[in-house]
Amino acid sequence: QVQLVESGGGLVQAGDSLRLSCAASQRTFSSYAMGWFRQAPGKEREFVGVISWNGGVTRYADSVKGRFTISRDNAKNTVYLQMNSLKTEDTAVYYCAANQLTSMKTYDYDYWGPGTQVTVSS
User: Whole-angstrom Cα distance, residue 34 to residue 120?
Assistant: First the structure.
């Protein structure tokens, strides 16, 4: 069982930056690929990005490519989502999730955090 907790959300203005963190409870964190997803009101949860267990592979949704960066620190059991040039359409609850595979599919993920709200105002 992996427990995940996101932090770092908040209210920012368009064009600002924000860094989300996701802390994992498991010492085997380094064996998991870590994904970030988001869900806006009235919409389905969507893929944002994923990083492989060793950080060697990253994938991003087209909507965030070039603006968002995922990184991880396995010594701290933490994965990060650096979000730059934020847009109002980035407003959503952001979730981190753990999985054995470097997947972009929501249903592949076994463990989820409770989410953190990111609101981008114009």
Answer: 24
